Amino acid sequence: MKLIRVNMNEKTINIEDVPQDYMGLGGRGLTSIMINAEVPPKCDPLGPENKLIVAPGFLSGTPLVNTSRISIGAKSPLTGTIKESNAGGTVAAALGGLGITAVVIEGQAPEGELSFLRIDKQGNASLVPAQGYKGMRTYQVVEKLLEAYGKKTSVLCIGPAGEYKLTAASIQSSDIDGRPCRAAGRGGLGAVMGAKGLKAVVVDQGGKSADAIADPETFKEAAKAVAKAIREDHMSGKVMPELGTAGLVAPVNSMGAFPSYNARKGVLEGWEKISGEAMAKLIQERGGNTSHMGCAQCIVHCSNEFVDKQGKYVTGSLEYETIWSMGGMTGIDDLDTIARLDNLCDDIGVDTMSTGVAVAVAMDAGYKEFGDREAAIEMVEEIGKGTEFGKILGNGPAAVGKHFSHTRVPVVKGQSIAAYDPRAMLGHGVTFATSPMGADHTAGNVVGAYLTQQLDPLKKEGQVETSRNLQIATAAADCTGLCFMAVVALTTPEGGEAFLKVINAKFGTQLGPDDIPGMGIRVLKAEREFNRRAGFTNQDDRLPRFYYEEPLPPHNTVFVISDEEIDSTFDF
Amino acid sequence: MKMRVKLYGTLSQRFPGYQHTQGIEVEIPDGATAKGLLVLLGISECQGAVVVMEGRILKADDKIRCGVQVHVFQALYGG
Questions:
Q1: Does the pLDDT of residue B44 top 90, yes or no?
Q2: Can you state the angle between helices A493-507 and A216-232, rounded to 10 degrees?
Q3: How many distinct structural domains can be found in chain A?
């Protein structure tokens, strides 16, 4: 239970025990509560007062499967709100294996100075000059770092976009194969890392100083039950290894809720060409891998390796949200182009979702035609080159809308919506409007509630309550380090019992089922308190006007949840 | 009535030779329900199968209309 505090002004590193106020916290719970306590809410997100906090979940570093989510938090330069963005890969398990609860990056290096933070197998941390890596794209960064430090090394890094401090810049996380293809994409946290003068966090894997488990025998038994529940669940055990998250392309299009052509339609013409089923078939025909293990300790294997016609690696893992942003929103129904765009974004270090939507806004404004594959690739390449237009694009859809004086910009608090149109899936509108993070697909995603017929996506009844409950549950789950695929499998009575038993065995506690939502509420309260002190009010919890006015084909419905109902979402 | 049903997720693996462009042809009685279609296809509930017609997820007792495209999915979560 150690905190590593790195001061980038003074180049000092302090390793301290976790203070009492932060004990028992992990992942998003720790980043959000720490930011609320330590970061001035009105500070410049790209200035020295902001802090970039990297925290594995509190179950990361234990033998439990699928506990490799890393939470990264800061005040966001994109939204101006508190932000937690989490990613898979290997670094959460590496930090957990060293008993490191969080790495806190403070201060700011002199302009133009670049460093790595290196953490070795003994848990020693040091800053290493990284001037030679200036402007380098992420795949090359990781390749060089693995050459220098060995294959068993985990990396978090930024690309040129982070160094340019673009507000859609991501932090890329290396996977099992040492590819920086997992992303803490949302909120522009790559810009915060770039502003600190930090190019990468480099962590040795295989540390042997993980925090002790209070009751190892019970933990072992419960961990087996968790793994069993994951394997037996039809989604995590069957569909995800076959199709990955791209399995959502078909149902969401069929339900008329796949925002397409910059959210002008709810169905993409030609969506069958970019569905999860089509992608799996194409990858298999070309000799790629549709059931790839991307994250440490993963038993789901929802990842894929997309290959070209020659069988050569293009990108991994091509995910639902990226297929939507780079395909649906831009009107591009070609998986090869989408895969190329995904790889470009990972390599340059920008969020695929914000970038795809930014491209779509530019197309909608008449800059290029919807469906123009070459134009989309050229636009994204401009971000990497740092051209004037590239920097506008790399600052996300709101910046592009402002540039073209175009008002159809699907963002909330400056961050793009995700792959579910609020007019055809009303609950998503509630989540996008009210999440403390800005519009976000990970904050309280309602699509599962529709597909399991818990509520009707087009009727307003139950939407606010469902969004609230899912936002609370997600905030709690984001503390643990468990991936979403595993969490879904633990919603059965047996899975839930095993999950609770694992937590209690880890900490020696006696938590009951009601304590889990309590954890989520505590996190959300801290996040909303930070935002309130930063100057946000209920008036910021609103969707763009066009969602209330422009009917979305094919259902031809608008967003009908009232402001009063939206404002009741966090009545706790 | 005869109708063509398109299958998604891993459901098509239950039907050797399934061609997605054509879907699968089934014959259902007039007034057949969504649940009846799933039973006819032999798709158990534990696989989370849901029937979508004209952009709407059908409830178990909702009737299937003649000549309308029907898709069968597996319930998934996103996040």
A1: no
A2: 150
A3: 1
Compute the distance between CA of residue A454 and CA of residue A29 in angstroms, rounded to an integer.
28
Helix (H, G, I), strand (E, B) or coil at A230: helix
Least confident of A163-177, A472-486, A531-545, B42-56: B42-56
- Is A112 contained in some domain? yes
**Range of A99's domain?**
2-204
CB < 8 Å to B48, chain A: 234-235, 451-452
Q: Between A239, A474, A554, which is nearest B10 by CB? A: A239
List, as one string, the DSSP characters of A107-126: S-PPTT--EEEEE-TT--EE
User: B46 pLDDT exceeds 70?
Assistant: no
The verdict on residue A58 lying in a domain is yes
* pLDDT value at residue B67: 83
Q: pLDDT of A335-360, one tens digit each?
A: 999 999 999 999 999 999 999 999 99
User: Average pLDDT of A495-505?
Assistant: 97
The count of other CB atoms within 10 Å of the CB of residue B2 is 8
**Is the distance from CB of A64 to CB of A223 less than 8 angstroms?**
yes
Range of the domain at B67: 2-74
Q: Are A378 and A372 in contact (CB under 8 A)?
A: no
At residue B1, does pLDDT exceed 90?
no
Contact B56 A255 (CB under 8 A): yes
Task: Specify the CATH number for the domain of residue B9.
Answer: 3.10.20.30
A442 Cα to chain B: minimum distance (Å): 4
Write the CATH number for A91: 3.60.9.10
Measure CB to CB from residue A234 to each of B8, B55, B74 and give the nearest one. Answer: B74
Count up the domains in chain B and report the number: 1
The two structure tokens encoding residue A163: 């160094």
Interface predicted TM-score (ipTM): 0.96
pLDDT of residue B45: 67
A179 occurs within a structural domain: yes
Buried b (16+ CB within 10 A) or exposed e, A212-225: ebebeebbeebbeb
pTM surpassing 0.90?
A: yes
Q: What is the mean pLDDT of chain A?
A: 97
